[in-house]
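Fold sample X.
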Amino acid sequence: MTGQNKNETKFNQLTLSAQVRELIKSGLYDDCYKIIVEEMMNSPHAPEPHNLMGMILEWQGDHLLAMKHFRASWDLDPSYLPARHNLDVYGSFFSRRMGAYDESDCPALEEKNPYKLEYGENNIGHVARRNTYENQ
């Protein structure tokens, strides 16, 4: 893929996410669904349409299917931040509906290690995930 094609694809994905964002806010889920399914057919290996489909499904209240689409998006491209962000946000018990339509919605990632080493009473170490407040 040439540099121009990559830039054009990136522009198309940003335009798609902006369009879907506006349609979801307007409650036009059927129109969103049609646009995203068409994009899935045109770009079957792109993570963006699956992430956007997950956003629609979350707004409609179909949490299980939304999580499947977020996971499919992440599987297609493990470096795609919105999918990872949505899995974290909507995978918790108390989501605050702060999902990511595209990279601009993702908070800046900190370079700090998200894991820490803890020792039990027998001095055996194990790896544990840090709380979000411990990284600050």
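Fold sample Y, listed below.
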Amino acid sequence: MVRIKERYLLVNLVYPPDAARISKARVPGLVAQHQPTVEKLTPQALVRAIRAEVSLLYGDYGAGALEGNLSVKYLSLATSTFILRCNRAHYQLLWSALTFMDRVPVKDGRPCIFRVVRVSGTIRKIEEVAVARARKLILAAKAEASGHPQSSLSTDILGTKDDAVLDVDNVMSDEDMEDGS
């Protein structure tokens, strides 16, 4: 029996700073970038928008590649975070489509950046990373609000340390695939 290999992508919605809103509310910059998504964003609307973007970029090939196996496993409007599941062979296609998306996929959606934080072969590992990032974000926001200089936690959240880490579990090399193992 053949097991279907999948990849899970942890994605954050990052909002560009709005100078008028930040100065009026006196919100720390880190909190303003990682603000909650308050729109009526649903998993179905998110999948529909992603499929439309993939179809726009890659045509029929892209639409067919993600047709039956793209789903939202977790969506948190409070943390602006979601987890996508897709076929292992096509996760890079999905990642590139997310890179080109620039608005929350609802009517009159705000501009945002879809930032892929981590890719993994298991949902458990992605969930652990999501929880750890949420904790770090809370600690960094508290530190910034209390007036401390930018700490290493906020540097990690903003993405200067471990952004290029690609955590893929159970990866087979090309040699293993040829051997049939």
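Sample Y note: Residues 6-170 form a domain with the Alpha-Beta Plaits fold (CATH 3.30.70.3250).
Also: Confidence is low (pLDDT under 50) at residues 151-156, 160-181.
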